[in-house]
Specification:
alpha+beta, Alpha-Beta Plaits, 2 domains, 8 strands, 65% helix, rod-shaped
C-alpha cells in the first residue's frame, strides 16, 4: 500500500506544481486555488483507490486459494480500475479548472494524468505480482510442474518497457503539438526565453517520467529478487541433503520453468537416494556407490588387501533348538554388532553367507596398514562376542562362539556372475586361504588364526603363538600360521 500512496502523492505534487511554476511562459500564472483544486482531485482519486485496495486484495487472495488463473484475472481488473481512476482524475481537473486555466494547459494536465494512468497500471501490475508471490510463499501454494513456460519473462519485461516508452513519446509529442498550436493561435513571438521555457517544460516532464520508470524498475527488480531468493533458499536446503523439499513454482515464465525442471531433478535424486539406501542394505555403501557410479572395472582390479572370514561355531545345533524367527533375530543382532566393528576399523563386509561373514580391508579403496586394521578388528570382535555371551548367560541362554581366519595378499576385485546377474566379490587364492584358516580354528581350538603373510605386514605388537606349518586342502605348499592369544 505504501508504494501506491507514495506514487499518488508524487503525482499530485507534479501535476499541481506544473501550471504554477513550470508552464508559465505561455500562460498567466494561476493562483493558489488552482494548485489546491488539482491536488485535491488527485487526493480524492487516492481515497477512492484505497477504498478499493483492501477489497481487491481480499478478492485476489480468495481467488488464489482456488485458482491461480482466477487470481490473475482479478489482478487485471484492478489494473483497469487504476487506469480508469486516473482518467477520472484528469476529467475532474478539466472540470474544476475550466475557469482558471487555458484549454491547452488543461489538455497538458490531462496528458499528465494519462501518463500517470499507464505508470499506475504498471505499478499495480507489479505490486499484484509481488502480492501474489508473497501469498503463495506464505500459504505454501505453487504452480504444478510444467514442461514449457506459458509466458516469457523477457517478453513481459519488453512489454512493460515498450508500453512506458510509448507513453513517454506520446506525451512529449502531444506537449510539443499543444505548444505549437498555442503559439500559432496566440501569435506569440519566438524568443530565447520561449525556447528556454520549451526546454524547461520538456525536461520537467521527462524527469518525472524517468523517476516513475525508476520506481517501477525497482519494484520489478524486488519482485524478481523475492522469487529467486525463495528458489535459491530451497536449492541450498536441497544441496545440504533435504531431498524432501520442493522448489516453489511462483511464476509461469522461465523462472517457473527452471523451478519445475529442478523439481523433476530433485525427484530423480530422491528416487536415486532411495534406491541407493535400499541398495546399501544389501551391499555396503562403498560398494553400492562404486557400482552406481559405474566405477567397477569389468575385467576386475588386482589389489593388495587383507581378507577376514568369521564363522559361528555350533550354528546347526543352535538353529535346531530355536524357531526360525528366533534364529533370524539372533543372526541380525550378531551381524549388526560384528559389522559395526568391521566398519569402525576401516573394513567392508562383502557378504553374509549363512552364519559366516566375509570382510575385506584395503579394497575397493586402498587402506594403510590393512593387516593391522584386520587383526585389530578380529580382537574387537572377540571382545564384543564375550559381552554378548555375558548377556546371553544372564538371560539363561547358551553362549555362542566363532572362529576368525585372516590372510593378506593380492585379490581380484570385480563383478562376478552372468550378464543378467552379478555380484561384487573378491576372488583369488588369498580369499580361499582366509576361508581355510577360519576352519582351522576347530582343529587347533583357537578363535583367531592369521597367516605368516599377514604377520609380516603387521606394524603393531600383538600376542601371537606360532602353530607351525600346516597342509591346506587344495594347496601344494604348506602354510605357516599363528594364533592370536
Amino acid at each position: 500500500m505504501l508504494p501506491l500512496i507514495s506514487f499518488y502523492l508524487i503525482s499530485a505534487v507534479a501535476l499541481s506544481v506544473y501550471p504554477k511554476f513550470v508552464c508559465i511562459y505561455l500562460y498567466c500564472s494561476p493562483g493558489v486555488h488552482t494548485f489546491i483544486r488539482i491536488f485535491m482531485s488527485v487526493f480524492l482519486g487516492l481515497i477512492l483507490r484505497l477504498a478499493l485496495f483492501k477489497a481487491l486484495k481480499k478478492a485476489i487472495q480468495q481467488k488464489l486459494l482456488s485458482s491461480l488463473s482466477s487470481a490473475y484475472e482479478t489482478s487485471k481488473a484492478e489494473i483497469l480500475i487504476e487506469i480508469l481512476i486516473w482518467l477520472l482524475i484528469g476529467l475532474s481537473i478539466q472540470f474544476l479548472t475550466k475557469n482558471t486555466l487555458y484549454p491547452h494547459l488543461r489538455y497538458k494536465l490531462f496528458l499528465g494524468c494519462f501518463a500517470f494512468s499507464i505508470f499506475g497500471g504498471t505499478l499495480t501490475y507489479l505490486l499484484n505480482m509481488q502480492y501474489i508471490t508473497n501469498t503463495m510463499i506464505t500459504s505454501n501454494t505453487s504452480y504444478p510442474n510444467y514442461a514449457s513456460f506459458k509466458s516469457s519473462f523477457s517478453d513481459r519485461v519488453a512489454k512493460l518497457l515498450l508500453i512506458n516508452i510509448i507513453t513517454i513519446i506520446i506525451v512529449i509529442v502531444c506537449m510539443l503539438w499543444l505548444n505549437i498550436t498555442r503559439i500559432h493561435l496566440s501569435n506569440i513571438q519566438l524568443s530565447d526565453k520561449l525556447y528556454l521555457g520549451f526546454f524547461k517544460e520538456l525536461s520537467y516532464g521527462i524527469v518525472i517520467m524517468v523517476i516513475m520508470i525508476l520506481i517501477i524498475s525497482k519494484i520489478f527488480a524486488r519482485h524478481v529478487k523475492s522469487v529467486l531468493q525463495t528458489q535459491i533458499s530451497a536449492m541450498e536446503s536441497i544441496v545440504s541433503g533435504r531431498l524432501d523439499l520442493r522448489i516453489p513454482i511462483l511464476t509461469d515464465d522461465e523462472l517457473g520453468l527452471i523451478a519445475s525442471r529442478t523439481n523433476e531433478m530433485i525427484k530423480g535424486l530422491r528416487e536415486k537416494d532411495i534406491c541407493q539406501r535400499r541398495f546399501g542394505m544389501y551391499l555396503t555403501p562403498e560398494i553400492s556407490e562404486l557400482i552406481l557410479k559405474g566405477g567397477v572395472n569389468p575385467s576386475g582390479q588386482i589389489m593388495e588387501a587383507t581378507i577376514l572370514f568369521c564363522d559361528l561355531r555350533g550354528y546347526s545345533q543352535f538353529a535346531e533348538k530355536k524357531s526360525p524367527v528366533e534364529v533370524v533375530q539372533f543372526l541380525n543382532q550378531y551381524f549388526t554388532n560384528m559389522e559395526e566393528i568391521i566398519r569402525s576399523n576401516g573394513g567392508i563386509v562383502l557378504q553374509f553367507i549363512g552364519d559366516e561373514i566375509e570382510a575385506v580391508f584395503g579394497a575397493p579403496k586402498p587402506l594403510d596398514e590393512h593387516a593391522d586394521k584386520a587383526l585389530g578388528c578380529a580382537i574387537s570382535m572377540r571382545k564384543r562376542l564375550m559381552e554378548m555371551n555375558k548377556n546371553r548367560i544372564e538371560n539363561g541362554e547358551e553362549p555362542v562362539y566363532h572362529g576368525i581366519g585372516i590372510h593378506s595378499g593380492k585379490v581380484l576385485a570385480g563383478s562376478i556372475g552372468s550378464p543378467t546377474r552379478k555380484s561384487y566379490a573378491m576372488v583369488g587364492d588369498t580369499v580361499n586361504l582366509a576361508s581355510r584358516l577360519q576352519e582351522l580354528n576347530k582343529e587347533f581350538g583357537t578363535d583367531i588364526i592369521i597367516s605368516r603373510e599377514t604377520k609380516l605386514l603387521l606394524k603393531g605388537t600383538y600376542p601371537l603363538k606360532a602353530l607351525g606349518e600346516v597342509k591346506i586342502k587344495g594347496r601344494e605348499q604348506s602354510v605357516e600360521i599363528y594364533a592370536v592369544l
